[in-house]
Amino acid sequence: MDLCHVPATREKGWYLALMAPNVKGPNYAWLDPSRLYCHPQGLQDCVADLLQPFRGDAIDIVAGIDAMGFILGAAAAATLRKGFLAIRKAGHLCVQTAAQPYTDYSGREKVMEVRTDAIAPGLRVLLVDQWVETGGTMRAAIELVERLGGVVAGVAAICIENSEGGKWIQERYKCSHCVPPCLQPRFDQHQ
User: Fold this and answer.
1) How many Å apart are CA 95 and CA 26, to the nearest integer?
2) In the chain, what percentage of residues exceed pLDDT 70?
3) Who has the most CB within 10 Å: 21, 55, 77, 94?
4) Does residue 52 have a pLDDT over 80?
5) Phi then psi for 54, rounded to 5 degrees?
6) Domain boundaries, the chain
């Protein structure tokens, strides 16, 4: 992996080529963006592209979704000079929490939690995750934020697939992702 090479022309999404395909089978996501996070310019450009639609918007805090959303969410929070809130899988927080059950992209039933003292009524939250495939995980995070009185200022992910859940999110919230329209069908079909 060449962590130094940067293309002469950096169009939106150039860094998507850094992602590695799944070699472990159906229990894993079809692409692994973690190699993209190792590339300094790739990570910076990815975060800049994710945040571009929200420039000038009121955002009070960035929330990243367990676990890979922590990487992009923390990077986005640092770029925006905002605080970072971790939305966790159940059982990891030792403080008072609100919980939301959901079904993840692999069809497994899980529970998401957030600390109850972090979201005050009217707090504008930018939700960040690595990927929105079926939308179940992101929708659980949205429900937690809204139940606590927060406002979803936006949703950002490397890819928001055109699944039923992805469309539901895009129809209701301001969204940002990094996949150019010409590549979206390939990402939706996991090619």
Assistant:
1) 35
2) 98
3) 77
4) yes
5) -100, 0
6) 56-179
- The DSSP bridge partners found for residue 55 are none
Residue among 93, 95, 74 nearest 83 (CA): 74
What class has domain 56-179?
alpha beta
CA atoms within 13 A on the CB side of 162: 10
pLDDT number for residue 27: 67
Q: What is the value of pTM for the model shown?
A: 0.94
CA angle, corner 64, sides to 102 and 89, nearest 5? Answer: 40
- Confirm if 95 and 88 have CB atoms less than 8 A apart: no
What's the one-letter identity of residue 84? F
Q: Average pLDDT, stretch 97-118? A: 94
DSSP string for residues in the chain: --SS---SS--TTGGGGGPEEP-S-TTS-SEETHHHHHSHHHHHHHHHHHHGGGTTS---EEEEETTTHHHHHHHHHHHHT-EEEEEEETT---S-EEEEEEE-TTS-EEEEEEETTS--TT-EEEEEEEEESSSHHHHHHHHHHHHTT-EEEEEEEEEE-SSHHHHHHHHHS-EE----TTTHHHHHTT-
Report the b/e string of 15-44 with b at 16+ CB within 10 A: bbebbeeeeeeeeebebbbebbbebeebbe
